[in-house]
Known about the structure:
The chain is mainly α and 281 residues long. The protein has eight helices and two strands.
Amino acid sequence: LRVNQEEVPENCSNIQDEEQDSDISKHRQKIAENRDQMRTNVIQEIMKTERVYIKHLKDICEGYIRQCRKHTGMFTTAQLSTIFGNIEDIYKFQRKFLKDLEKQYNKEEPHLSEIGSCFLQHVEGFAIYSEYCNNHPSACIELSKLMKQGKYRHFFEACRLLQQMIDIAIDGFLLTPVQKICKYPLQLAELLKYTTQEHSDYSNIKAAYEAMKNVACLINERKRRLESIDKIARWQVSIVDWEGPDVLARSSELIHSGELTKISKQGKSQQRTFFLFDHQL
């Protein structure tokens, strides 16, 4: 079959352009669908972990605390306060948070869910984690003392079985709030990655990510300062015949310590140990 070569290029280029446009359009659509799917996955993961976390908190409050309070011969109020901290307040707060999160969750099209505002509304409430995280080391110490006795080990295991809790020891359950507050910024960062700037939730997710990152940093900083104060208190107690005012009256952090040589006017030298605090030497 002979074809007039002169007439082909024009028609051919039009067909090629249309095919190219069609390919680009399909490619863009595929990218958008993939991003929507990834956003769906992240949203569903956030919802799932939130529901599992609420179940853990409920098990601690109803499975452990409630049973412990019944056994006044085994636990004092002070012991329970040390072991469980303000976890009941956290449970109450998280239930409200999940309820609001469920309202914003779009079951039919999860990628369209707008959950950023939930985090922003509750951001001040997350501050209660600070008290729990600061208390957690004391809780671990108190719990390990009790666990040396068989009756306490058996008691906590009986509580776990009675509540039909998953096979994790009590210290594992008590660690979950500490892990949770650190996980929020990671989840929001992942969600932000798959949220386009055109998405109605973009600005809220971005703001929520920054806010939750600040919450986690603030908790870590408070924890670090408390540990520093505790360290100074232990250091001062260890010094025999301490004279002068309490170091903690003016300082809260040991910056540096080391050996220095003191030389008198007569040229005599003495080795001294110096401690530099944030407001005194």
